[in-house]
Design brief:
The structure holds two protein chains of two kinds. Chain A has a single domain, classed as ABC transporter involved in vitamin B12 uptake, BtuC (Orthogonal Bundle), CATH 1.10.3470. In chain A, 75% of the residues lie in helices and 3% in strands. Chain A contains eleven helices and two strands; from the N terminus they run ααααββααααααα. A two-stranded antiparallel sheet of chain A has the order 1-2. Chain A is globular and about 60 Å long. The chains are: A mainly alpha, B mainly alpha. The interface between A and B is large, with 48 and 47 residues.
């Protein structure tokens, strides 16, 4: 029971983190029709900035805030210098260009920070275990990730559903040409959305950083997961991204935690221990394939809200 | 008016002549590494050419093409591991396995279009990647060393560098010839028609998805062949050949060279892998130069290298 609660929370935490990454991606994808493979690089940059700034300032909170600002600026710079010329181009051109950016960022990081990974140490007040229900302890840091991500998700919901900017964003996701024709400054909106997406990706990266090491290529695996999520959720749909992110986070975490035992009951233990890791890594891709075959538009398509 | 002699064709002819004479140069200059490097380039050129068949002519943007490289490679590796060394068994199995995989994932993936198709092919390739990582009998994550290259009796000796090089070159040119025949056949015209306007093709009575699927399977089979070649070239096969960045590399080669042009992928593979090699000799941080270069190609050289050459020759 203890393990179940703990893994359930781990799944929730991972899912929420994935949501932060997927939200930016789905907005950029849905509104600008732009496939941004470099989104994972922004996630990585967020983590590297945080590790640097925290070491530099000596304060966790200050360092994280600086890193967030730096990622936002980097995102806007990236959009302004390179990516805005790619809007309206073929998806393949965008894939190629942003693939090039991944190569660039990975080597730039290797040049600046060196090939070895960095660690982002937590302040003491975040490392204590918290008793969430009697007898069950959970790390304070992971709890704070859940809280922060939920707060951001709620904030994002309010911005997207209750403000004028949000209205424009939703309108953009449904029909890009139309809001341009209605006299909205679409370029500014695009830059804004891209910067927002970059900051969210950076936030996800720096929150994940203390749990895993900060290393080159950390953004690539998780980028694929984020793509899986927005495809399952329906491209351009924030709500879909949220649901799918939680679903994927849960399935991935719970699969890794419980599948080996489950398989051991059916198969011999040797066969189970070899099959389980592969199978649990495959689960989410299997989920995505099933969703795409049954509902090719994703679970919550943006156009039909 | 299409002239037979233009800059584009001249470049292609020169490149092919160069490839044919390369072993001679390598033998005379004693630079063996050039032969090994170009063997690898030619194998990837074949994979890129197969991807071009579905991307350039079929309009199907597969982001999981590296899966076939792995399947072809693992077919050779696993059979060799189990003591079946004959190439007459290994290679047909490699092709058949790739074709079967393409048939299954194609039938499912072709229910989707556009970006969704890109993502679902990626998902299937990632599944193949994780299956390979789980094959603990065959090395799992660490991969599988192939101690003996495919045995073709006395016909050809794959351990001989020059013979293997020419075999790869023959496969590449044969593959491109096959693609040329396919593209210009009635079948190929239907596939290209479906790319341009699916509804219209449906309306005049073609079962669009069936044509697409057959095209998808042919492409996967050709790529499986280059997987078998690749495994023989490196004497090693690991899940890393199927990783999604590998699929990305193949896409880059196709787009860089010129999507939908017959020799474009070959040129793209040569330029991409040569640049990688040259830049990595020049600096450890070669990707810092390569990345922005790809960006510039996309921004300023539409249609890739072949497209630019075409423009150049038109003046």
């Amino acid at each position: 029971m203890l393990v179940v609660v703990e893994q359930f929370l781990n799944g929730l935490q991972f899912g929420l983190l994935l949501f932060l990454l997927a939200a930016g991606l789905t907005l950029v994808f849905g509104i600008m029709d732009f496939v941004n493979l470099a989104h994972g690089s922004l996630y990585m940059m967020g983590a590297y900035f945080a590790a640097t700034f925290v070491a530099w300032t000596g304060s966790f909170v200050l360092g994280v805030l600086l890193a967030l600002g730096a990622t936002l600026l980097l995102g806007i710079l990236l959009e302004f210098v390179a990516l805005k010329h790619l809007y309206g181009r073929d998806h393949l051109d965008q894939v190629l260009a942003t693939f090039g950016l991944i190569l660039f960022f990975n080597d730039a990081v290797r040049l600046i920070w060196g090939p070895a990974g960095l660690a982002l140490p937590l302040p003491p007040w975040l490392t204590v275990p918290v008793e969430i229900i009697p007898g069950v302890y959970y790390p304070a840091y992971r709890l704070s990730i859940i809280a922060a991500a939920l707060a951001v998700a709620a904030g994002l919901y309010l911005v997207v559903m209750r403000t004028r900017i949000g209205m424009l964003i939703r309108a953009g996701a449904s029909n890009r040409e139309m809001i341009g024709a209605l006299g909205i400054n679409i370029k500014l909106l695009f830059t804004l959305v891209f910067g927002l997406g970059a900051a969210l990706a950076g936030l996800a990266g720096l929150m994940q950083a203390p749990i895993l090491t900060v290393q080159i290529g950390m953004g690539e695996n998780i980028l694929i997961l984020a793509f899986v999520i927005i495809v399952i959720g329906g491209i351009g749909s924030i709500r879909g991204a949220f649901m799918a992110a939680i679903l994927v986070g849960m399935i991935d975490t719970l699969g890794r935690a419980f599948l080996p035992d489950l398989l051991r009951k059916i198969l011999s233990s040797a066969a189970a221990s070899t099959a389980a890791p592969a199978l649990s890594s495959m689960l989410i891709y299997l989920l995505m394939a099933i969703v795409l075959v049954l509902r090719p538009e994703g679970l919550f398509p943006a156009g039909k809200r | 008016m299409k002239a037979v002699f233009n800059v584009r064709n001249a470049v292609v002819a020169l490149v092919i002549a160069g490839l044919m004479l390369l072993p001679l140069y390598s033998a005379l200059s004693g630079k063996i590494f050039i032969l090994t490097l170009f063997t690898r380039i030619i194998i990837f050129a074949l994979a890129a050419a197969s991807l071009n068949l579905i991307m350039g002519y079929g309009g199907m943007m597969s982001f999981g093409h590296a899966a076939y490289l792995g399947i072809g490679g693992y077919a050779v590796g696993i059979l060799a591991f189990e003591g079946i060394g004959s190439g007459f068994v290994q290679w047909p199995v490699a092709l058949l396995a790739s074709a079967l995989f393409a048939l299954v994932i194609g039938a499912l993936s072709l229910r989707t279009r556009g970006v969704y198709f890109i993502m679902i092919t990626l998902a299937f390739a990632q599944m193949a990647y994780y299956v390979a990582s789980g094959l603990s009998r065959y090395g799992g994550d660490d991969g599988l060393t192939i101690y003996k290259r495919s045995d073709f009796g006395g016909i050809i000796d794959l351990s001989n560098r020059v013979q293997f090089y020419y075999l790869c070159l023959a496969c590449l040119l044969g593959g491109i010839y096959l693609i040329w025949r396919i593209v210009n056949s009635r079948f190929g015209l239907v596939v290209q028609g479906v790319r341009s306007n699916e509804q219209r093709m449906q309306a005049i009575g073609f079962h669009a998805n069936r044509y697409r699927l057959v095209c998808f399977v042919i492409s996967g089979t050709i790529c499986g062949l280059s997987g078998a070649l690749l495994a023989n070239n490196t004497d090693f096969v690991s899940p890393a050949v199927m990783y999604w960045t590998r699929s990305g590399d193949l896409m880059v080669m196709v787009i860089l060279g010129g999507m939908g042009s017959l020799f474009g992928p070959m040129i793209g593979a040569i330029v991409y892998l040569l640049l990688e090699e040259l830049l990595s000799q020049f600096t450890e941080y070669w990707a810092m130069i390569m990345g922005p270069m790809l960006l510039l190609v996309v921004l300023f050289a539409r249609g890739g290298i072949m497209g630019s050459l075409g423009r150049f020759s038109r003046g």
